[in-house]
Every structure is written in C-alpha cells, then in structure tokens.
Amino acid sequence: MPDGTPPLPNRTLKTPQALHAAGLLPAEALPGAEVVARRYSISVTPAVAALIDPADPADPIARQYIPDPAELVTAPHELADPTADAPFTPVTGVVHRYPDRALLKPLLACPVYCRFCFRREAVGPDGGLLSEAELDAALAWFARTPAVREAILTGGDPLMLSPRRLGEILRRLAALPHLDLLRIHSRVPVAAPGLVTEALAAALETGKPLYLCVHANHAREFSPAAVEALGRLHRAGVVLLGQSVLLRGVNDSVDALEGLFRSMLRARVKPYYLHQLDPAPGTARFAVPVEEGRALLRALRGRVTGLAWPTYVQERPAGGGKVPLGPEYSPNEG
Questions:
Q1: pLDDT of residue 334 exceeding 60
Q2: CB distance 52 to 256 below 8 Å
Q3: 117 labelled ligand-binding
Q4: Does residue 319 surpass a pLDDT of 70?
Q5: What CATH architecture is 86-326?
Q6: What is the three-class DSSP state of 317?
Q7: Fewest 10 Å CB contacts: which of 93, 235, 246, 265?
Q8: Stretch among 72-86, 223-237, 288-302 having the lowest mean pLDDT
Q9: Has 114 been labeled as part of a binding site?
Q10: pLDDT band at 1 (very low <50, low <70, confident <90, very high)
Q11: What pLDDT, on a 0 to 100 scale, did the predictor assign at position 124?
C-alpha cells in the first residue's frame, strides 16, 4: 500500500510470522511470540484483524488475541483446570457441575484463541472433535440423565461445526423430553461473522427454546458484519445473550463497560454475565480485583438502563459453580 501499511489479511493468521507480516506484531516481539506459540495456539481471523489498530500499543482488541511472553509465567494462584472440568466429566465431552444443566463440548477448536482463555491448555487447531462413538456416548448420557433440563453446547466453539453437524446434534438433544432449554456459547458472530450463514441460522431451529451466549469484551467487536450476523440469528428466533470477561487493559473502565453493554443492546444482545477472570496459567496480566470490578459496576448504576446490567460472577474453586459478586447496593445511596 502507498503508505507502507500492510494490507488487511484475507485469511486467518495462525503464526507469529503471519501476525508480523500483517503489521500486528512488531519485529522485536517475534522471538517472544514464537516461544508462546510452542505452547498455546494462535488464531486471528480477518474480521478481528480489521478491528485492531496497529498504531496503538494498548489496543484492547489486540490485547485479547496477540501472544505475549507473559503467558508463560504462571502465578502461584493459577490453575491448569481453573473451572475443574475434569472431575465433573462423567463421559468424554460432557461436564456436569449443576444438577439441572450440563455442558456438551463437541469440539475444542475456536475461530480465535483468547490469550486469557480458561481452557487454553485444551483448545487448539487440531480441534478435539468428538468421534461418532464419543458423541453417541455423550448424547446417551443426556438421554439417561433426566435431572438435566438444559444442555449447553460449548467447547471450543460449537458454531465452528458445519450447519449439518450442528443441526443434527441440536435435533438429537431437542428430542429428549426432559430437556427444556438448549444453549450455545460462541465467539463466532463477532470473531468470524461470515460463518453465520442462512444455513447455520436454519440449523438452529429445533422447536425448543434456544439461547446463544455471545462472548464479546469490547464495544468495537460489534462491527457492522457482526451486527448483521446477530440480526440473522435474531430473525431465526434465537434469543441472544452476552457474556464478557472483566479484563485489565480491555474493559476495566466505566466508559469501556458502558460502551460494551450499549453495543450489545444495539445488536439485540442482552448482557447476561460479566465474568471475573478464571485463573488459568499465564493470565495474571488480565486480572482485575473483585473490589475494583464491583466499583466499576456500582458506577454504572443509574448510568445505563437495567437491560444493560449483567450479573457479575465468579467460578468457585474445585468446580463449585458460579456465584454472584454484587455489587451490593443500598436504597439510600445517591
């Protein structure tokens, strides 16, 4: 390009060298990023790359996806399995921590790999796709566990599956009479909106209530393409919820959170959860103390509509599930 700026990539960037060639990683950061890449996967889609300002060293989008050597430093409090998936896995691909709901992880591939991911030791490009036998066993577990009323597809990112494959899984779950709700957790609508085709939207029609939790952490992630993709899902009857992680340098200010929640609502996404960071190895640079998180939300009280208000939650240790963190509010305040 005439100004020397590298052209925007037309394919997913999966190596430090590709990030450097796209102008998203300076030359002096290459050696450190290459060491990180030997342990943790890298993936930055064209849609995400287009959101990054390479001239801003503190860009909140880049911070979420560009590797940093700090990822290789494990703090004393950090855990390889901070949500304790493993002890609550009755069969491969299923996590059952709550009496009335369970996770189904049909694959462990994502369109992008977040540098703060609590499953960062497990996810990667090889995908961890359940075999036919493993999927059958997982669905059989749901069939013989009538106490479970909600199936939550996560991973990895379930919207990375083909519409045919995803539709088949949803239909088999929807056919179980004791399942009332289906839920999908995904980054795809904001990170790879081109995957949200009419065929994918059609695959989500199951005859039972289906909720899609969209993971986004900054207002800029709601690009025109993302808003269009979410609109397609909305028109298909999918209820859209938003979940975010409170992250240092990404959304740890009142203005950033307000912008995020307002952007969600404009895209027909109801803010649902704001997560306290799970202590996965090498994620300490993203940590915001709970009291600071409470103060941020307290400052938003009355500044945004109640529709923009998520529940601030934290995973309890040893797989105890989520607990709300507040903030507490006195009716005499203000």
A1: no
A2: no
A3: yes
A4: no
A5: Alpha-Beta Barrel (3.20)
A6: helix
A7: 235
A8: 72-86
A9: yes
A10: very low
A11: 81
| Residue 126 pLDDT level (bands cut at 50, 70, 90) | confident
What's the Cα-to-Cα distance from 133 to each of 93, 95, 138, 141, 272, rounded to whole Å? 11, 17, 9, 12, 34
- Is pLDDT at 3 greater than 60 in this prediction? no
Number of Cβ within 10 Å of residue 27's Cβ equals 7
Range from 99-108, 119-128, 141-150 carrying the lowest mean pLDDT: 119-128
Residue at 260: amino acid letter:
L
Structure tokens at 220: 């800029």
Ranges of each domain in the chain = 16-72, 86-326
Compute the distance between CA of residue 158 and CA of residue 100 in angstroms, rounded to an integer.
21
> What CA–CA distance (Å, rounded) separates 311 from 274?
6
Orientation angle between helical segments 132-143 and 163-174, nearest 10 degrees: 30
Alpha carbons within 13 angstroms on the beta-carbon side of residue 173 total: 32
**Which DSSP state fits 308?**
G
Amino acid residing at 106: P
Sheet of strand 210-215: strand arrangement = 94-98, 101-104, 150-153, 181-186, 210-215, 239-245, 270-275, 311-315, 322-326
Pairing, β 101-104 against β 94-98: antiparallel
Query: Please, which residues bridge with residue 13 across strands?
Result: 44
The answer on pLDDT for 306 being more than 80 is yes
Query: What one-character-per-residue DSSP string does 180-222 give?
Result: -EEEEEESHHHH-GGG--HHHHHHT--SS-EEEEEE--SGGGS
